[in-house]
Amino acid sequence: MDKTYKFQKGTVIDCAIKRANPPEVKYTWYSCYTPICSEKSWKFIKKAPTLQLDNQLKPDMKYKCKAKNAAGSASKIIVVFKPVENASDSAPTLSDQIRTLISIVVPTGLTSMIIVVVAGFVLYRRKKIYGGFYLFSYPPLPDYMEILDRNGNIQEQLQKLPFIPEWEFPRERISFARELGSGQFGIVWLAEAIGISAFHPRDMLREREGGRRFSFFNRTMKRNSYVFCKEVTQVAVKAMKGWILNLVQYLHVL
């Protein structure tokens, strides 16, 4: 009668004979996973009195141990079955579900809280600085030319002003003709400016304040309308000492 084992990883099957005459016995292990095992179905595994099972290819397998000495040979067949896992055993328990839920909810909640705090701080700062949130439009910019102290040092005041692209006339559209004069603060040049007659930074800033933040194409066309102007105008340009050359100050049109 075949002996039956339940498969567990690391199970050791022993077929050693306690007493044999003569005592020198050779053991050989074979395996078979077909329902009916013929002589050709048995596959050689190893030569040893014991066999350790670390894995099993099929749910039900047969192992044959053949013992042989000078007096003769004998064999024993051992059946090893692997129990089918129950679906209820593999299903997550309530504690596992709670643990998984916590691992998802806690990081998501913390991330959402950080986003809300940062967004609230940004909106608070915008409200404090500009008097409104201006989420879909640009906040109003002060007219810095109006707040300059004409009796003070203009050069020092201009250097403290923030950079606003709308107030900067492109350097490449100005060509210097000749020097008109020089003084303590810089040199005055006679120059020709292309399109400066259509350069109206205040109007561009008003359009920017009234326009939508995401209407890029239309706003760009209006703000850069002077780019398409080909009119050449003679101007006097003062290049102030210590300034980068493209930060020229447009004084007046001749």
Could you outline the blueprint of secondary structure elements for this entry?
Blueprint: E1 3-6, E2 11-14, E3 26-32, E4 43-46, E5 50-53, E6 60-69, E7 72-81, H1 87-90, H2 94-130, H3 144-147, H4 154-160, E8 174-182, E9 186-194, H5 201-210, H6 216-223, E10 232-240, E11 249-253
Parallel strand pairs: 1-7
Antiparallel strand pairs: 2-5, 3-4, 3-6, 6-7, 8-9, 9-10, 10-11
Protein name: Vascular endothelial growth factor receptor 2-like
InterPro entries: Ig-like_dom (IPR007110), Ig-like_dom_sf (IPR036179), Ig-like_fold (IPR013783)
Keywords: Receptor
Could you characterize the architecture of this molecule?
By secondary structure, the chain is of the alpha+beta class. It has 3 domains: 3-81, Immunoglobulins (Immunoglobulin-like, Sandwich), CATH 2.60.40; 95-162, no CATH class; 163-252, Phosphorylase Kinase, domain 1 (2-Layer Sandwich), CATH 3.30.200. The protein has helices at 87-90, 94-130, 144-147, 154-160, 201-210, 216-223, and strands at residues 3-6, 11-14, 26-32, 43-46, 50-53, 60-69, 72-81, 174-182, 186-194, 232-240, 249-253. The strands form 3 sheets. It has a 5-stranded mixed beta sheet, with no helix packed on it. A hairpin with an 8-residue loop joins strand 10 and strand 11 (249-253). Mean pLDDT is 78; it is low at 216-223 and 243-254.
